[in-house]
Amino acid sequence: MGASGFALAAAAALLLAACGNASSADVTPIPTPSTSAKPTADLDGFYGQKVQWRNCGDADCTSVKVPLDYADPQGSTMDLAVSRVAATGTRIGSLFVNPGGPGGSAFDYAKAASAIVSGPVHEAYDIVGVDPRGVAKSDPVECLSDAQRDSLVSADSTPDTPAEEALIAAVSALPATECLAKADPEARFMGTVNAARDLDIVRAVVGDPAFNYLGKSYGTYLGEVYAELFPGTVGRMVLDGVLPADLDLAELSRGQADAFEVAFADFARDCSEHDSCPFDGTGPEVARQLREYLVSLDSKPVAVGKRVINEGVATYAVLSFLYFPSSDYGRLRGALDRLVTQGDGADLLGLLDERTSRGPDGRYLDNSTDAFYAVTCADRPYQATVDEVRALAQEWSVDAPTFGASIAWGLLACNDWPSIPDAPITKVTATGSAPILVVSTTHDPATPYAWGQQLAASLDNAVLLTWDGYNHTAYNEGSDCIGDAVDGYLLRGTMPAAGTVCD
């Protein structure tokens, strides 16, 4: 997939309940913003629209209309799918949530409210999910066929010959070509700037004067952009697993390549401590053998029915199960053991299908791949030649021998992306906002710790909370220390002390 596509799009959220100790009785109301900007007159109709809520299973749901192009509010519109799970106790406001991606469904994420926030937070907040424009249930863009998505996953991501380079360049061009042919003009307006503007309309429609928010992974960038556009309306905002605004696509992808290499080494260490590991020796020895095995699949792929596990497929599967050690490592180890020792790759393909939303009939269950490219390439436009990308692949492979080349070649997916009308926001200070809590994990494989440090330093009013671990994102992922600190902020507005580090 694309550079960040090879990395971030693999992160299907695995939601683990945390054990926070906050008391639901110890809650401080959210201050009403005094400096929030008023919408321009041509947006009054959107901000003032009345909606009808309906029961949709585990939540109430509605649709909110937003302009396709904010420069032309009287033109075409898009419909956003919104879910709301009511507070279980005395309500102090709405907490908007986004799981990341880009391309993940916030609508579905919010419906899992009891798993994504602690009990006391759920008591105090309605949990609200808004599928961003073009994503999932919000007028989804549809660009790629199932066969084309398969080709992106299975492409040789480490080409060795001019013919292989030409093939990966052709496959990488599919998202831009197909979105321009099948999803124009919607795909042109899917940048995060527009998605953040949409959130402010939904905030007003649900009746909240302040925007309270929990964003994870890409959801942090959506929160950053919102805070930059609407600093006076920020309420209690938690940004967990930071995707920064100020890196271009190559810088972002290089950071991920290096971070995933650290996670790969940790997986190899963990594997070496289990009898079910298909390789022998210490962690570094297991890492070397696994890397050699992945490379060997380039010339000796393993057939699984009508499908094939080649180097690209297997490498992507391994990368996609490095996000959450407590749940990922054991499943990946078992699947690799069956592949390496028995020649049976069905389990590894099953893991990859799970993370890419591919159903057993070969159909993809959502538009997350299409949306990922449409948002990523709009936010971080990139242009490079095959020669330039080859040079990056060689350079990155020095420090990231497992994933560096694959992630570098993925940059080609954002070449020649359709022009967009709004420039992305590349610097975030959110001057004048309420305090923002930034949460970062020291060995996060997808959003490196340094990115959280950089964001906390650049924001006008923020504190960094650190989890010393290997997980992607931190809140409600098993640390009572993180859970208590985040809950204290969401419930009482109390920031953890600067420099707080949780084990």
UniProtKB/TrEMBL annotation:
Q: Which residues form the Peptidase S33 tripeptidyl aminopeptidase-like C-terminal domain?
A: 401-502
The keyword Flavoprotein appears for this protein: no
Coiled-coil zones: none
Keywords attached to this Swiss-Prot or TrEMBL record, sorted alphabetically, are: Hydrolase, Signal
Q: Name one GO molecular function term.
A: hydrolase activity
Q: Which family does it belong to?
A: Belongs to the peptidase S33 family.
Report the protein name in the record: Unannotated protein
- What is the scientific name of the source organism? freshwater metagenome
